[in-house]
Task: structure prediction
Amino acid sequence: MTWVKICGMTNLEDALVAVDAGADAVGFVFYEKSPRYVTVEKAREIVAKLPTGVEKVGVFVDYNVGSARNIFRQVGLTMAQVYAESIGEWCAWYESDEIKLMWAIPGSALKEEFLIQLGTSKRRFTALLVDSGSGDRPGGTGIRFDWEGAKIGIWHLGSEVPVVVAGGLTPGNVNDAMKMLAPWGLDVSSGVEASPGKKDHEKVRAFVRAVREMDRRVG
Result:
């Protein structure tokens, strides 16, 4: 089945709704410029009350690896989602501590030269997240990247590493994304919100339901 992550959690109620709806993962944004920013203390309170089997993902933007490692351990996270130009130090942490690591890149980067540059290093992390953000808004933009332009790159990468698609997903278009891109996973934040940092519970349920229905149709 397709892996589903509901990101931008700021309160326990929303996280529990996501879990109850059938999400595989919930995400916590430790980026102070984001409207979905959550403190370490609050994230720890939420994580402590979530089921063991749910992936708890910390979102880190231009973070020092040592600082991120401290947050990871304090909160009780299981995966790091990293927005950084270079992830060599992150990969070293991943390989030494056996954490799960997801590197986020913009969909616009999926050009032939990037795929060549990536080379065998793609085996050094758990998954690759293809998102629509850039600059001060690395994610959670509510905007789709160019699916048509990126689909061949995503198909190519998907044969060698799990690819998660994010950016502008909603309950209404997630099936189109699955048909066109055939990703291993999906990551949604603003597309299931009532307001930044607060989830619309029916949209969360509708998103997961749409993904599972598509999973059943394609077998």
